[in-house]
Design goal:
Layout lengths: L2 E8 L3 E6 L3 E7 L2 E4 L4 E5 L1 H4 L9 E4 L2 E2 L2 E2 L2 H15 L7 E8 L5 H13 L4 E6 H8 L10 E6 L4 E7 L2 E8 L3 H16 L1 E2 L2 H11 L10 E8 L5 E7 H24 L3 H10 L1 E4 L8 H9 L3 E3 L6 H9 L19
Parallel strand pairs: 1-9, 9-10, 11-17, 17-18
Antiparallel strand pairs: 1-2, 2-3, 4-5, 4-6, 7-8, 11-12, 12-13, 14-15, 15-16
């Protein structure tokens, strides 16, 4: 009775937190701003993200997770601690039970880092769940049945593809290519084509406003601002939807290739189910215009986007917190208790 149950989607781009009985209570960018003079955390989440590229030399705004795994342990632990404190604000609980998600392709060392960060943040009981499993449960797929369910979770740092049956992953592929790489592709293209240097936030804005995986009706262009690499002065450039699509094409092709690889390794009976049911896209990058249609064309499978693709993983952790969630038979391959 003195335990608070918390589910955390610790993502490369965003961290979502849910509390049992309350639903999703926090949705913040995975960014921390800290003072390098004394290692004091100045800001976390959206406030810290607004500081990226705008801080003085004494303050650094960083994203402590890279490609779905912890790149800076101390900063990640500080961020998680701040989020947990916010989630428990006004509550009097002595124990915190936490469910976190990890990419399916992480090593035991990387899993241990996530576990230790949660422990340092104050969690007393910790479960680690593979992201595609949590995403499938959160998307409402019948993963406990003896049938094939295919989920493609495309986040900020990783793309996870898995086929699930009878409450566990049958086959899975993980590639550290996702939304952040789409942003990097846009930055590289504009630097190469227009001699203009732009930041991550501008690249993300371009991707959201005019980015696409396929041609779409009403394509337009956008004016962007950056620094001219020739003379170092500020400069405006107009970039079209077709240019952005061309810039992202190689990255999109890598994501589609990992989907193909997963299908090749799927047992025939489950593959037959997937042909009938299709695959479900989750994660923020699943919202890229035309991506679902392009995947359907390339694989010949029906493709649907989950109702709340950004929330599927954290909703899966919320299910794990329920007593009758069905996770009793789930094998925590990467999420065993480190004790």
């Amino acid at each position: 009775m003195f335990t608070r149950d918390i589910g955390v989607d610790l993502g490369t781009a965003n961290t979502l937190v849910c509390v049992k009985g309350k639903g999703i209570i926090m949705r913040e960018p995975s960014v921390v701003a800290y003072d390098i003079r004394n290692d004091a955390v100045r800001a976390v989440g959206r406030e810290a993200k607004d500081m990226i590229g705008r801080t003085p030399g004494s303050i650094v705004a960083v994203r402590p997770l890279k490609d779905g795994v912890i790149a800076d342990f101390d900063v990640t632990a500080a961020m998680l601690k701040r989020f947990v404190r916010e989630a428990l604000k006004g509550s009097f609980f002595s124990r915190v039970r936490m469910v976190l998600c990890i990419p399916s392709g992480v090593t035991e060392v990387e899993s241990r880092a996530v576990y230790d960060a949660a422990k340092q943040a104050g969690a007393t009981d910790i479960d680690l769940i593979e992201e595609p499993m949590a995403a499938a449960v959160g998307a409402g797929l019948p993963v406990w049945d003896a049938s094939g369910n295919m989920v493609v979770d495309i986040g900020g740092g990783t793309s996870e593809v898995a086929v699930i049956s009878l409450g566990d992953i049958v086959t899975a592929q993980s590639i550290r290519v996702a939304g952040d790489d789409l942003d990097e592709a846009i930055i590289s293209y504009i630097r190469r084509k227009h001699n203009l240097l732009i930041g991550e936030r501008t690249a993300e804005q371009i991707k959201i406003e005019i980015g696409s995986a396929k041609e779409y009706e009403g394509e337009t262009s956008i004016e962007i601002k950056g620094r001219n690499l020739v003379d170092g002065l500020p400069k405006n450039v107009t970039i079209s939807s077709a240019e952005v699509r061309s810039a992202m094409a190689d990255t999109v092709a890598q994501i589609i290739e990992v989907i193909r690889l997963t299908l090749e390794k799927t047992p025939p009976e489950l593959a037959a189910d997937i042909i009938d049911r299709g695959m479900t896209l989750t994660g923020g990058s699943a919202l890229l215009r035309g991506l679902a249609e392009l995947i359907a064309e390339e694989t010949g499978m029906p493709v649907t986007i989950a109702a709340n693709p950004l929330d599927c993983v954290v909703l899966g952790t919320a299910k794990r917190l329920e007593a009758d969630s069905g996770f009793e038979n789930y094998v925590f391959k990467r999420g065993k208790r480190f004790r």
